[in-house]
Specification:
Mean pLDDT of chain A: 79
CATH superfamily of the largest domain in chain B: monomeric porin ompg
Order of helices and strands of chain A: HH
Number of domains of chain B: 2
Oligomer: heterodimer
Low-confidence stretches of chain A: none
Helix content of chain B: under 10%
Strand order of the largest sheet of chain B: 1-2-3-8-9-10-11-12-13-16-17-18-19-21-22-23
CATH topology of the largest domain in chain B: Porin
Radius of gyration of chain B: 28 Å
CATH architecture of the largest domain in chain B: Beta Barrel
Number of helices of chain B: 2
Largest sheet of chain A: none
Shape of chain B: elongated
Low-confidence stretches of chain B: 1-31
Shape of chain A: elongated
Distance between the termini of chain B: 52 Å
Number of strands of chain A: 0
């Protein structure tokens, strides 16, 4: 119960923190650039995910880890 | 005013009247956004040294934009794989003969060489389709399907993702689920777990095909922190259920004192294994948890992309991944992007170099190097430029190196004198074109 209350307090604080952060709509010139998107090149990201999924025991994180390949 | 002028004015007035009445003008949505296709394509070469795996791959993602910010995305990838992959058996000071996975032939590996299975040849085609559209003023929904086909593997998947913006669109909360239903139809049939590799033509321990289901959940928050800094944090849960064993991998059955693989004699007149090898076995359930964080920071034209992932699972594998990319523009439309990635993982609880004949047979065992304890580093450079007609091209060259180690407690007798976990070196060359 104490733990839940603590978690709720932290979440509330974080959310309150979030609402104070950020920028105005007219300040989005930089974030709107292609190179500032979280994934700049979908194919390159998919290629890397596929290579590392095939060669390592971890997958996903950025998106779904899923299956889809007999390589692991 | 002459006659011609008056006719011209009446035509203009008629057109204006029609416009006011809403006739003969394009629908407003069409006027705002012109539907169009965008293509992102790539050619990839991935090659490992020592005649190991080589992959030639062609990919294309086509995106059609519709009015009101709706998108259809279609992706296609074709991979052609060749080369050899470690079978799981250990090196010996004498040549070793193995029955091929098909059960229809045999191959021999020279003394002192790491046993590689060279029958590894495959073509893989993967297809994805996705639909994205806004829901109300601040939300977005994305649904998709995927399918892929290899000679011995079929995948079908469905996924859905929902994202909602808060706080003047500075905070985005997202949640997604994915289901994957896969079928494995191994060459020669899936072997019964932990049974010995048999002579050529003896398929008494081979069964039919196998299934695997994967269920994924990802929840995340993206937060704009300032005009030039955006961060993301994700938690993901992934459960795999079904046949998670690699049907082509084996373990060497070794003498508990000398560490040498026990020899065997094939039936007279028939080719077969020269030593004793057991097919591996993994648990049929695996649950992974991952935490992922990413930051993108804009510094006077340069962009730093940094991410970190921690993964832990119930096979006792823990891993850490750090990925750094730094985009440096030069001139009006060119850039360089160095890339550094570091990865480290602990071994699965059932990973072992070999199986000792002086110990009881374990329930689960695998000598797959990908389940071992290793570090990996990727170093790369990408160069991108815009063509005269404003399309984008890029080329990247990267080197990948895996360095593993076997726990001392697993090394028996003569095994200490050999390099049991040879380094893996690979090169990645990718050419991209967007138009």
């Amino acid at each position: 119960m104490k733990r839940t209350a603590g978690l709720a307090a932290v979440t509330t604080l974080l959310c309150a923190g979030c609402s104070a952060m950020g920028i105005e709509p007219w300040e989005r010139d930089i974030l709107a650039k292609d190179e500032m998107q979280l994934t700049t090149d979908e194919i390159e990201a998919a290629t890397d995910d596929h290579i590392y999924f095939s060669k390592e025991a971890s997958s996903g994180g950025r998106g779904f880890g899923g299956g889809g390949c007999g390589c692991n | 005013m002459n006659r011609k002028d008056s006719r011209s004015i009446s035509a203009t007035l008629a057109a204006a009247t029609c416009s006011l009445l809403g006739a003969g003008i394009p629908a407003p949505v069409d006027a705002q956004e012109e539907p169009a296709w965008d293509f992102n394509t790539s050619l990839l070469y991935y090659g490992e040294d020592d005649d190991r795996v080589k992959d030639y791959s062609v990919s294309a993602i086509a995106r059609r934009m519709f009015v009101d910010d709706r998108f259809l995305t279609i992706g296609l990838t074709v991979d052609v794989l060749t080369g050899a992959t470690p079978s799981g058996a250990i090196k010996q000071d004498v040549p070793q003969t193995f029955t091929r996975p098909s059960g229809d032939g045999a191959y021999t590996v020279a003394a002192g060489e790491l046993p590689l299975d060279d029958t590894f040849k495959d073509t893989r085609a993967a297809f994805t389709v996705g639909w994205q559209q806004p829901v109300g003023e601040t939300s977005l929904i994305n649904i998709g399907a995927s399918a892929s086909r290899e000679y011995d593997y079929t995948h079908i998947g469905l996924n859905a993702k929902f994202a909602r913006d808060f706080n003047r669109r500075n905070t985005t909360v997202s949640a997604g689920i994915a289901l994957s239903m896969d079928n494995l139809d191994p060459v020669g049939g899936a072997p019964t777990a932990l049974t010995p590799m048999r002579d050529v033509g003896d398929k008494s321990n081979r069964r039919g095909d196998e299934d695997k289901d994967v269920f994924d959940i990802v929840v995340g928050v993206t937060q704009v922190l300032s005009r030039n800094l955006v961060v993301q944090a994700n938690y993901s849960y992934s459960n795999s259920d079904g046949y998670l064993t690699d049907p082509y991998k084996v373990l060497s059955l070794v003498d508990g004192t000398t560490g040498d693989t026990l020899s065997r004699v094939p039936t007279p007149g028939v080719d077969g294994p020269s030593h004793q090898f057991l097919f591996e076995n993994r648990p049929d359930d695996r649950t992974k948890h991952s935490l992922y964080g990413q930051a993108k920071y804009y510094m006077n034209g340069k962009v730093l992309d940094a991410s970190y992932r921690f993964m832990t699972d119930d096979w006792e594998i823990d891993s850490h991944t750090v990925d750094l990319r730094y985009r440096i523009p030069f001139g009006a439309d060119r850039y360089f992007e160095p890339h550094l990635r570091f990865y480290t993982q602990t071994e699965a609880e059932f990973y072992r170099l070999s199986i000792s004949d002086s110990q009881p047979l374990p329930s689960f065992a695998s000598a797959d190097y990908r389940l071992g304890d290793f570090d990996a580093i990727t170093l790369g450079m990408k160069y991108g430029w815009k063509t005269r007609d404003d399309n984008e091209m890029s080329v990247r060259v990267e080197g990948y190196r895996q360095t593993g180690s076997i726990p001392g407690s697993q090394i028996i007798g003569s095994q200490a004198t050999r390099d049991n976990y040879p380094d893996l070196n690979a090169i990645i060359v990718q050419f991209g074109y967007r138009f």
